[in-house]
Amino acid sequence: MSGSAVVVGGGIGGLAAAIGLRRIGWDVTVVERARILADAGAGISLHANGIRALDVLGVGEAVRAAARPQYTGGTRTPGGRWLARMDGAVLERELGTPIVGIPRAVLQRLLRKALPSECLVVGAEVTSVDCAGPGRVRVQVKEGVLDADLVVAADGVDSRLRGQLFPDHPGPVYSGSTVLRAITEHPVTLRTDFELTWGKGAEFGHIAFADGRAEWHAVLNSPPGIRHADALAAMRRRFGSWHDPIPVLLDATRPDAVLHHDIHELATPLPAFTAGRVALLGDAAHAMTPNLGQGACQALEDAATLAAALAGEPTVESALTRYDAERRPRSQSVARAARQAGRMGQQLTHPLAVALRNTGLRLAPSSLTVRAVLRHADWAPASLG
Of 86, 166, 245, 319, which sits with the fewest C-beta atoms within 10 Å of its C-beta? Predict the structure, then answer.
């Protein structure tokens, strides 16, 4: 089966979906609202499930070449005491790949490179979709109308299409946490590839990249909408006394490089990931908190699964039924686990709860930490045929 598709959204999930659809012989147009592709964002961790999805989409090798394996690291206290260590070599033996770190901008450029330039239409905003007609979908953009056999809604956490298709759904809600993040201006000397440090109502983490630079992020309990005149100075006040290399990472950062976003999630699960001939994908379908590092990986799983369903089913309708059945239970389960991980980790503030958390992590065998990662990362995509 082949046909034509309009993918709404040119982020990681939308680009991956377009790659998958083209690999199975579909004509694809990616419609991106932004007029300039600035590739904003800091860093991203890709677990084995994300890498496997990229492999089946044909871009895994290029991403591996640009990424840095995350072999050494773990979780610490603000004073530097180790709570848990993670050995990436163990994950590599279990899953065939360690976690890898890559700048989000690099990943997005690699995905775009896998598509013909004419596939991507920038500066075009989709205002609505019409699923009323038999067999086709009409996509309304300000410049006119696009007709397709399939629409992929990959337009993010604030998805306009999700709101149209599921008007009774409450939509995204604030998670209680805000995140500040940046990539260092120059390479930094680090003893580990990745770390998380948990304090009271706060987390600071880093990911090392192949070029020697690093991404850092700070997740804080906060009312929504709080912004700082000088975000980097605020991070120095909050985290400057925490263990090395946190002060080094902050000192290696330009003030204008710090990004600040409140974290929203779909706390109320969607009743379906499809409506008519529209498939929701990525944050539009299952926006989750970042506590498991699975947001992008789940979007990549969506893309690979959608392509495999369309390649293996006789009709678009049956393919979308299969896509929903395979993706909704898994991604919503991961979203619940991410929410719970945040509440039991970074979001704790009571001193007794924090002490119990830290003691539990210190006493837990390392195999338990590995099993926690395997629980979500041990996924394999179906063949595209």
Answer: 166
